[in-house]
Amino acid sequence: MEPSAQVERFQKAIRTALIGPPELSQRDLCARLGCTIGSLSKYLRGEVEPTKVGFEIQCKLANVLGHSVDALNRYYTTGEWTSDTSIKTVLSWIRSDAGQADLPAILDSMQAMATRTSGADQGSDSDSKDYLWPLTELKSAEVSDKMRKKLGLTDKALWALAKEGKFDDDLVEAFSLACDYQEDAVREAFEKRQPITA
Question: 3-78, superfamily in CATH?
Fold first, then answer.
């Protein structure tokens, strides 16, 4: 694995932590990570490999991002966020007293996911069938669901874009940030309902 790929992923993890929610200033993030502004600036400029950053800072960064340290480390190596959760862990949690109160919310979420999936598969609207580029672009840019949520690139917003061509400046800005495109190019692609061509 080239160190440069790990450095880029470390930079992306730091930028994700700054974006939030909650959105943090560089000073706030430094306070949470226990590092100096100078160190954070070096991280953002790509001057430091994540393997050279202290374990305590990595633990705190993982916490800010809502992931485990192992998941953060795997992200540096593979470029993908993976979960440490197993079926055994989920079943144990559901059987516990803590899981019972959340079970209705989990079932509602599963139902909503099934509805979204079946709606996307049906492709009843020709526009939605033809304009899935934003979704595939986010996937190819390896933007995690958590990052999408933080940026406001929700399924609802992306589906409104795909199905009805609806979007606003916030969606353009978030998409350009997530996929590293110029905002003008993203806006034009959304208006024309065509992928950005290099």
Answer: lambda repressor-like DNA-binding domains (1.10.260.40)
**What pLDDT score does 126 carry?**
38
Contact 27, 37 (CB under 8 A): yes
Q: Which long-range contacts (CB under 8 A, 24 or more apart) does 66-75 make?
A: 66/146, 72/13, 75/9, 75/13
Place of tokens 């305590």: 56
Length of the chain: 198
Among the listed ranges 62-66, 105-109, 126-130, 183-187, which one has the minimum average pLDDT value?
Answer: 126-130
Nearest to 68, CA basis, from 81, 80, 54? 81
How far apart (Å, rounded) are the C-alpha atoms in residues 189 and 58? Answer: 37
> Quick one: pLDDT at residue 15?
92
Ramachandran category for residue 126: left, alpha or beta (phi over 0 → left; psi -120 to 50 → alpha): alpha
Give dist(CA 118, CA 123) in Å, integer: 9
- Distance between CA 173 and CA 151 in Å, rounded? 9
